[in-house]
């Protein structure tokens, strides 16, 4: 009976998914602010915001989010029950998250203003965030389906995902004037969606895998050793917060404790599932889901940090040294960087080594001020790096020199305020700064 009804159930699941996606689009068009400019097919229409009963939800936006999210949650639960497709389930979960974001930013001040200001970027960021988080949450289910594929098919499916996430992590800058998939000054999807949201979820998945391992891996009827169960459960409970702390070193202790408590429910559930599994299959799905999801995020972040250091300490330093040589000969800095080439100080002007140049190639931004200048570049994430050269003593009058000499000592490196006043200045540290 179940085999005969299988195709019908799957078809029903996909049909319900289409309705669920339509409901998310309905919330987007109904709760999104009406644009000031041209109205495109994708543009919100704000028709729900013009209904008299919406004022109740505008005064109580949390209630509005719950009311609009409830039908989506019920629909997604039905899709999970009817369809065995991990892809369909991920789309269903993404629809729920997207609908909740549309409701929040459509009802909760200052969300409507933010959404209207950024227009299509606001819509694109919310959709991207929703489905990035959904794919991370469903990573074990997606990994189970992926492992069933032949080797060639696995590569064909995974490589585009790997490349896409690496490109997103490496190329998106919050301070770039283009603001591609970013809400200034933070690129929301890679920073909040992947580096915060997805990594937090992956920490929980890793903890679940450890707990499931502690309670599985034995022949049916055999009891795992007490030490193994205790170790799996303990590591599973502590790992989510420690994992997040590894990525965000300044993550507060109180938040780590809260994350451990929030993850306990899922870790305990994984331990119970581990008792019933055979040959560690569920543990394997959790582990593979974690590995497949974390690899592109880690690779993109490592590449972005390498770009940051290579630009700050490499190509920028080449320009800075050439400007110093120019100043030594002319007693002033050039008005534009091409004067370094025409004057023979550089063969070519180096470019910031940020991101894939075939997507977008950056240039250093330079402003010359005679005896000083400002050199800038946009780094990955949300940092804008600016450099100012050392001030010469001639640039200070006697009062300035006295104030610098009387000022207290500087940082732990031993520089005095006078050293800092006379020395070169970066607006960004030698390594990318922490978010917290």
Explain the overall architecture.
The chain has 15 helices and four strands. About 3% of the residues have low confidence. By secondary structure, it is mostly helical. Strands 1-2-3-4 form a four-stranded antiparallel beta sheet, with helices on one face. Among the domains are: 137 residues, no CATH class; 119 residues, no CATH class. Strand 1 and strand 2 form a beta hairpin.
Residues in helix, %: 55-70%
Q: How many strand units?
A: 4
Q: Give the helix/strand class.
A: mainly alpha
Radius of gyration using CA atoms only: 27 Å
How many helices? The count is 15
Mean pLDDT: 84
End-to-end separation in angstroms reads: 56 Å
Order of strands across the widest beta sheet?
A: 1-2-3-4
Q: Spans of 5+ residues with little confidence (pLDDT < 50)? A: 407-421
* Net shape: globular
Give a short account of the largest sheet. Answer: 4 strands, antiparallel
Kindly estimate the percentage of residues that lie in beta strands according to DSSP: under 5%
What string, H for helix and E for strand, traces the elements in order?
HHHHHHHHHHHHHEEEHHE
Lay out the secondary structure.
Elements: H1 2-31, H2 54-59, H3 61-82, H4 86-107, H5 111-118, H6 120-137, H7 139-147, H8 151-171, H9 188-214, H10 226-247, H11 253-276, H12 281-330, H13 338-342, E1 365-368, E2 373-378, E3 384-388, H14 398-406, H15 417-422, E4 425-426
Which structural traits does this protein have?
four-stranded antiparallel β-sheet; 436 residues; mainly alpha
